[in-house]
C-alpha cells in the first residue's frame, strides 16, 4: 500500500503547476550526502512517519461483488494509516526553492481527496476515496526540527503532507450462494394410513391378545370357574 501512495504522490507533484517543468521528484531521505549528490532542481517528498488513524477503525465486514453485482465474498474493513511526508524544494537559490514550494502548494491544495480512478493496484481495487492534507497542523509526536536533526541536515522550509490511506485487511470469506427465487409456500395432504409394517405389528398385537384371552378362558373352564359356554 505504501509504495502505491508513493506512486500517486509522485504523479501529483509532477503535474498541476509543475507540469512540463522537468523538475525531478525524489523520495529519498534528504540527508547531507543526498544533497551533495543532487545536480538538478528537485522536489523531495520524504516519508518520515507512519501510524494508524484509530478513529477510522471499523468492525463487521464488507461485501465483495462480482461483475454481475452478486455478493461472492466478505472481508474485514480496511485499516487506515496516516502517511506523513516532508516536502522540500532543492535548488541553488532560496528564491527558486520558494517558487517551487509555491507551485507544490498550488498543485496540492485543491486536491483534498484522491478518487479511486487515480489509485493503482490494491488501493484502486478497494474503490475508496482517500483524503490528503498539506501544510496543516502537525499532529505527529516528532517536530520537524527533530526530524532535520535526525537526518543530519540544516533546517529548510518544508511542507507537511499527510495522506490517509486504507490498508486492505485479510483474509476474505466466501459468501453463501445467492438467492435465486422468492419465498414459496407448498401444501401437501397428510396420509393417515399407517405404513404396512405398523399395520402388521398391530395385527400381531391383536391376535396375541385374543390368544391370551382364550387361554385364560380355557384354564378357567378346566377349573370349573368359567360358567360361560
From TrEMBL:
Biased composition annotated in UniProt, kind: Basic and acidic residues: 211-229
Lineage of source species: Bacteria, Bacillati, Actinomycetota, Actinomycetes, Kitasatosporales
Region Disordered, residue ranges: 194-229
Name of the protein in question: Pvc16 N-terminal domain-containing protein
Limits of the Pvc16 N-terminal domain: 4-181
Native source organism of the sequence: Streptomyces violarus
